[in-house]
Amino acid sequence: MVTRRDLGSWLEGPDTSHISKYPGERLGLPETGPGSLGRAGRRILAICIDWGLCLLISNAFFGGNSWATLAVFFAEQAILIGTLGYSVGHRVSNIHVIKLDGTRAGIPAALVRAALLCLVIPAVIVDADHRGLHDKAMKTILVRR
């Protein structure tokens, strides 16, 4: 039998005590400022800049071949993120890639991350902390500098 207590909990709504107040809180990141999560606007700007540069390189050296553009994009992402922690677009957007423990991503993680990014789908499926599957797979995150 349904009691008044059952209805009261239903009327109060679901338990939201485990839900984060802002993206990145569960990962221990600050809400704003340096070290906070790189939000969608910065990420989109970064990828547009990176793709535009790769298109320019592809047009100059490979006649605009779409596979060459993708290969240049892969190389840029893997090499720059693996060594510096950021791509050209990330640098302009003031974000960089780190592992969840705060260290650099490194070459192996950057190679796999870049490959998954080139597949597009893993990058557009995101969690509550705005991390794409490519970041979750490599235990990386984009944060503000």
UniProtKB/TrEMBL annotation:
In Swiss-Prot or TrEMBL terms, this protein is called: RDD family protein
Q: Does the keyword Magnesium apply?
A: no
> Where do the record's region annotations for Disordered lie?
1-27
UniProt KW keywords: Cell membrane, Membrane, Transmembrane, Transmembrane helix
How does this protein lie in the membrane?
Answer: Multi-pass membrane protein
- What InterPro entries does this protein map onto? Pra-immunoreactive, RDD, UCP021697
Chief site of localization: membrane
Does the entry feature the keyword Transferase, yes or no?
no
Where, by residue number, does the polypeptide cross the bilayer?
44-62, 68-89, 110-128
Pfam families in the record: RDD
Q: Which residues form the RDD domain?
A: 67-138
| Location(s), subcellular | Cell membrane
